[in-house]
Amino acid sequence: MPTRSDAATELPAAVVLPPDVRRCLLHLARTAVAVAARALPAQDLEAALVCDPGMDLHAAVFVTLTEPRGLRGCMGILDANRPVAEAVVEAAACAARTDPRFPPVQPRELHGLELDISVLGTPVRLADPQAFRLGIDGILVERDGRRGLLLPEVASTAGIDQVEMLEIACRKAGLPSGAWRDPRTSVSAFRTDRFGCPAVADDPAGKG
Prior knowledge:
Order of helices and strands: HHEEHEEEEHHEE
Strand content: 15-25%
Low-confidence stretches: none
Distance between the termini: 36 Å
Largest sheet: 4 strands, antiparallel
Helix content: 25-40%
Mean pLDDT: 91
Radius of gyration: 17 Å
Strand order of the largest sheet: 2-1-3-8
Number of strands: 8
Number of helices: 5
């Protein structure tokens, strides 16, 4: 593993997907959630996979489901070599059915849910672990085969600062809270393109 002296000083660049790719991914995610909730047959997802303008795009992704009371499910696929459409379908289905923090989404809930997709850019290793920008950059903490990741919006939704965000990421990785201070720990920052829509909606263009 490279040491912090080998780390980059620049910060990650913005990630912006074309509008047609966003629309396709939202359609795929909404269909995957509905199929996972058993509100649509599996054949509908197979049909939706035909509309994939970003078939050459590979990236790590997260899909987040929220309800008026707060989070309803969030799961990610961290393999940046996976086709993004495939990753979105899997993450959406997992957010609806297998997030261990919540029971599976039921068909009656779909009209009250919002869906957001976060497509992750390439992480940039930081020489200074606290150099990332709150609310703009997500962080990835890695050591000894363990890793913990937090999306950029965690800072604002949880009202935390850089140190608290680093400590939470370390705990998610199964490391002590202060492990980010250890030079053996790699801390990287990344940007995301986050966009979303209601889980069931007439407008497929979405928001964001």
